[in-house]
Amino acid sequence: MKVKDKSFEDDGSTREAVLTITASPEEVDAAAKAFFKELGQRDVPGFRKGKAPREVLERGVGGHENAMGGVAEKLINDGAFPAIDSADVVFLDEPQFNVDKTLEEGAPFSFTVSGMVAPQMELGSYEPVSITMPPEEPTDAEVEQGLADIQDYYHTLDRIADEDHVAKMGDYVDTTLTVSENGKPVNGLNRVSRMIGLGHGTMPASFDEQLIGSKVGDILEFDFDAKDEEGNSEFESGTLHAKVEIRGFRQLNLPALDDELAAKVGCTDADDMRAQVRRNIGMQKAEQLPGLKVDRAVEAAIERLAGEVPEYYVDFIRQDVGREFVQGLEDQGTSLQQWMLQNKVQADKMKEEVNAEAMRRASIDCALEAVFAHEGMEVTDEDIMALFDGEDDAEEKLKSWQEANRMSNLRKMARQRKATKWLVDTAKVTTED
């Protein structure tokens, strides 16, 4: 069974593929033989199994025309999907089969298959993308930040003994804290002991500002804005009420970058510690920068998409994103409802995040397919096998994809891998800290 014709129809909102598939006379006759053999295994009054005449079997299914319909159905079920797969078509939902003519034994048999497929989009430009990347070698600033991280790990918070101390930015404040929303205490924040780092991100900036100038023993009540820097809040009102008792103050003290600190982290001296930090940063960059380059090159290509990704395709990808998320929760032994309650996630916010991820993935698909087509690339057998690099049973896994008629999915993966490599290899890179 072969695909004799392949065409695409795009009405501006969805894109469909229409395949005309033809079975040879030999395939038709083989399907008819198998169909009637299966019918012959049924109980037919007056005949032993397998001995009923053809005419009797046809009458048992409603006549010759119905029997030929059964042969056509068997032929389609057995051969259509391998043919579709060979045509490199991935339908987004169950395709529609249409048979115009009754099947005749000893003659070719044709039918059409149609259904939604991914959109075909173009980029505004196919010139190499321009991206910025961090330097490959560790910079002095990165080394200093690494050393600062070590200092922070070994910091101490020393109590401020001055009873007249007034809270200022940078202090750590020992508090007894109650936070409520619309008069109802927020879960986990009802008369609890909390150390608040003023200006350190422990609480929103609008909260920290209310503690400036306070002293030990003060009891403060105030409303504050519970939003992040982007203006988002996990609370419906976005505004919370706090009651804070000031119990004491602490000062952050960082250890010196000396031999004593070096010994704590397993280095011989301060110079060795600095050298180790530089070496570790270099190893980290060698591991992470290739992936970062891929992300930035692909992101630059997405920005060149001409027009918006059709909504029907975003909807299709959204289903995958949702399934992956729920499956991930199940693998962790929790349900979606439990996760939302534990993380205080509102349904609308989670839906926005799923939608954003679906749009991102759909855009990547369309951009990479556009690059592949424009550059006239081809997928080889070597490209397919490369998808299984590192697998002990690569041949068996490839065979399982073939038997499931999913080679078109593998070819899509290979296309996108080659397009991604082209974007990365040709990218114009500007290095900046």
Outline the structure in words.
The strands form three sheets. Strands 6, 7, 8, 9, 10 and 11 form a six-stranded antiparallel sheet that branches. The two termini are 58 Å apart. A hairpin with a 2-residue loop joins strand 7 (172-181) and strand 8 (184-185). The longest helix is centred in the middle third of the chain and has 33 residues, at 270-302. With 433 residues, the protein is α+β, with helices and mostly antiparallel strands. It contains 13 helices and twelve strands. It is 46% helix and 19% strand. It is elongated and about 110 Å long. The model has no long low-confidence stretch (mean pLDDT 91).
Alpha plus pi helix count: 13
String of helices and strands: EEHHHEEEHEEEEHEEHHHHHHHHE
Could you give the count of β-strands? 12
Percentage of residues in helical conformation: 40-55%
What is the general shape? Answer: elongated
* Biggest beta-sheet profile: 6 strands, antiparallel
Mean pLDDT: 91
Structural class: alpha+beta
